[in-house]
Amino acid sequence: MKKMIGFLFLSLVILGCTSDADNSANAFEKMNTNTTQSLTDISFINKNQGIICGSLGFLSKTNNGGKTWAHLNVGDNQTFMSAFMVNAQNFYTARLDLFATSNSGATFKKNENLPVTLTIFAIKFFNPTKGLLIRSGSIFRSTDSGNNWTETYKLANSSNLEITSDLVAYAYGGYTSDAVDNGQILKTTDSGQTWVTTLNSDSNIISVSFISDNIGYYVNNKTELHKTINGATTWSKIVTLPVYPSSVCFINEKIGYISTYEGKILETKDAGLNWKIVYNEPAERIFKIITKDNAVFAIGDNGLFLRKR
């Protein structure tokens, strides 16, 4: 009888441990986007309303945190590389051309004042009138809701943007080849009118996440995680990551997430010192992870959209 009780107790312990392990690697829920296109960018204005863009002219919006999606007809089949949602009515998507809607996606208008040259890698807005975009190594600024754009910085080694307040934004990126690996972070404190270089790095800056104007993080091609507490004036290395990151986002100074091209999402709860796998599907490439209002979302190949449970 004692042996039977001991066996049952041991079985319950094993089952309990197995359940915990499964849950820890299943912290994100996969939601149906009704597409197999690769998703390239994501933007949310709160935990419910957001947009995703991708290959072959794909753009879709949700009003319930990704549970359901409504496909939007932009009227073009170029692979969009950037998307930004200003509010429920106004949002943008771009690649070679810039498209905007002011009626929640019912119709889109192509910007005819922006000449077609090279890829628009990033577009962000401070507010409904002031915005930034990066195209072919230059940063452009708009003060009229994206109708007209003025170049404010040339030859930037940057391809992405992070806006932290009505005045402050960061541009970042770099270049990696067999012989070269370098990165750069630029900062503006006047809504993009002027820019200063705050970091020239010996490794490509893959992704940046700021939780305020002053506190931020970046991951680089050397798989390092760095942190600033003074608005990118100085950076301190926190850790060398156990994976190669595709993107990083922090909710606060303790909790953050990293995505990988190998289908993993890792979570830290101790300010980046230690990381634990909370999602693991090796067949799914994850390109980007973001947070909004404490909700966490990720996108990837074949229409992949994930939301933290």
From TrEMBL:
Domain Photosynthesis system II assembly factor Ycf48/Hcf136-like as annotated: residue spans: 24-150, 182-291
Keyword Glycoprotein part of the UniProt annotation: no
Protein name listed in UniProt: Photosynthesis system II assembly factor Ycf48/Hcf136-like domain-containing protein
Cross-referenced Pfam families: PSII_BNR (PF14870)
Keywords in alphabetical order: Photosynthesis, Photosystem II, Signal
The organism of origin for this protein: Flavobacterium chungbukense
Signal peptide from the UniProt entry: 1-27
Lineage: Bacteria, Pseudomonadati, Bacteroidota, Flavobacteriia, Flavobacteriales
Keyword GTP-binding: no
